[in-house]
Amino acid sequence: MTHPCLRCGACCANFRVAFHWSEAEPSMGGQVPSKLTEKFDPHRLVMRGTQAYQPRCIALEGSVGVTTRCSIHPQRPSICREVLPSWESGEPYPQCDKARIAHGLSPLAPEDWIRFKDANASAA
Ligand code: SF4
Ligand code: SF4
């Protein structure tokens, strides 16, 4: 059983993903590929695609709610690391719930993680 985020991707197709420009500046330790960004304001960049009326990050691969992956996962902006899947750590996260609902998906529940852990334990 795959991780719930790999069957979702809703948060990557629901919000504007803005972050400080230095995150895409290698000389300052930034790792976000600059070609996948565009200017948002004097201090911030955005991931391309996330300013659209119906946002979808350019780095998102796959179909939301079916199978997805972030093509720059190790290099993704800090703000992406702050959106956590509801209940993985024992509490809900409103941004996760809001994104999933916007894409017609049910918010994650504690039972989803029990099933995920049980399936992986039996597969091990
Ligand atoms: S954090 Fe939530 S909305 Fe984002 S991919 Fe994971 S399950 Fe989906
Ligand atoms: S960079 Fe990756 S994690 Fe961040 S919004 Fe885009 S696809 Fe999602």
Task: Give me a quick take on this structure.
This protein has 124 residues and is an alpha+beta fold. It has one domain.
Structural account:
This protein has 124 residues and is α+β, with helices and mostly antiparallel strands. It has one domain (4-123). 23% of the residues lie in helices and 15% in strands. The chain has three helices and five strands, in the order βββββααα. Strands 1-3-2 form a three-stranded antiparallel sheet, with no helix packed on it. Strand 4 (60-63) and strand 5 (67-70) form a beta hairpin. The protein is globular and about 50 Å long. The chain starts with 17 loop residues before the first strand and ends with a helix. The chain binds iron/sulfur cluster (2 copies). One iron/sulfur cluster binds at residues 4-5, 8-11, 83, 85, 96, 99-100, 108.
Show the helix and strand layout:
Elements: E1 18-20, E2 37-39, E3 44-47, E4 60-63, E5 67-70, H1 78-82, H2 94-102, H3 110-123
Antiparallel strand pairs: 1-3, 2-3, 4-5
Bound molecules: iron/sulfur cluster (2 copies).
One iron/sulfur cluster is lined by residues 4-5, 8-11, 83, 85, 96, 99-100, 108.
